[in-house]
């Protein structure tokens, strides 16, 4: 008879890493983003805009504070429009860390856009985001630490996607830094059978055990930062 068990895994972290083939992947956006090897998406609706308020001050009250950054203006945009920003192709063995900061400006209590971060491995489709946020509006830059594990000979790109909500505002990122070591505060995300599980997210996996069920049968799971929160089965 079959025994079907359902396990819920909870990961405790989120993050990204790397060095690169030609570019390292860091970008402070003080120089043209293309000099960092970054590119705009081709199959999207909007472009990211590059600003440096230390060179060109702005009177826009929603303009993020600080110097250089990339941003998407959601004003006068329909809900669901997308803007993609790609890092160069990166290649690094083992688990490493990436940090960046993001800022959301707009009407108080509003959420003008969603920010998704993807890992596009070996030119594959983007799949599910490894990290995302939908705001809300904030007066400060918020730091993000992400981790990723890649193994030779794989390579990947980090993709920053902004999806507009139909509300007025701005969403910006700055100071992308790829570190050659594991994250100090956040463990790397779990990657199980193509499913990426990050902080605050859950995933459900179904396992089938064949044979005669015994009361003293135990199924052990091995992993890091994994919690078996429940199982269920019928004889």
Description:
This protein has 235 residues and is an all-beta fold. The chain has a single domain, classed as Jelly Rolls, CATH 2.60.120. 0% of the residues lie in helices and 40% in strands. It has no helices and 14 strands. The strands form 4 sheets. It has a 5-stranded antiparallel β-sheet with strand order 2-5-10-7-8, with no helix packed on it. Strand 12 and strand 13 (195-197) form a beta hairpin. It is globular and about 55 Å long. 34% of the residues are buried. Residues 1-22, 189-193 and 220-235 have low confidence and may be disordered.
Helix tally?
Answer: 0
Helix share, percent: under 10%
Strand pairing plus helix content: what structural class?
A: mainly beta
Query: How many discrete structural domains?
Result: 1
Please give the radius of gyration in angstroms.
21 Å
CATH architectural category: Sandwich
What sequence of helices (H) and strands (E) makes up the elements? EEEEEEEEEEEEEE
List low-confidence stretches: 1-22, 189-193, 220-235
State the major sheet. 5 strands, antiparallel
Q: Provide the residue-averaged pLDDT.
A: 74
What is the top-level CATH class? Mainly Beta
* Spatial gap, N to C terminus: 7 Å
Beta-strand residue fraction = 35-45%
What is the 3D form? globular
Number of strands: 14
CATH topology: Jelly Rolls
Strand order of the largest sheet: 2-5-10-7-8
């Amino acid at each position: 008879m079959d025994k079907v068990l359902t396990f819920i895994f909870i990961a405790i972290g989120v993050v990204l890493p790397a060095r690169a083939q030609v570019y390292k992947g860091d970008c402070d956006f003080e120089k043209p983003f293309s000099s960092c090897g970054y590119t705009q998406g081709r199959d999207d609706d909007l472009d990211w805009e590059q600003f440096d308020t230390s060179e060109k001050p702005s009177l826009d009250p929603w303009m993020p504070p600080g110097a250089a950054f990339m941003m998407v203006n959601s004003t006068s945009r329909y809900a669901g429009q997308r803007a993609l920003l790609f890092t160069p192709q990166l290649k690094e063995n083992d688990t490493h860390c990436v940090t960046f900061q993001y800022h959301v400006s707009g009407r108080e209590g509003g959420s003008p856009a969603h920010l998704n971060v993807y890992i596009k491995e070996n030119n594959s489709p983007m799949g599910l985001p490894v990290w995302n946020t939908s705001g809300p509006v904030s007066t400060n830059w918020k730091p993000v630490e992400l981790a990723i594990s890649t193994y030779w000979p794989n390579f990947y790109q980090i993709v920053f996607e902004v999806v507009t909500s139909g509300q007025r505002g701005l969403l910006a990122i700055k100071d992308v830094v790829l570190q050659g070591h594991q994250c100090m505060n956040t463990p790397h995300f779990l990657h199980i059978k193509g499913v990426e599980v990050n902080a605050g997210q859950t995933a459900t996996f179904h396992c089938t055990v064949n044979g005669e069920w015994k009361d003293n049968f135990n199924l052990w799971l091995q992993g890091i930062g994994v919690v078996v929160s429940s199982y269920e089965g019928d004889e």
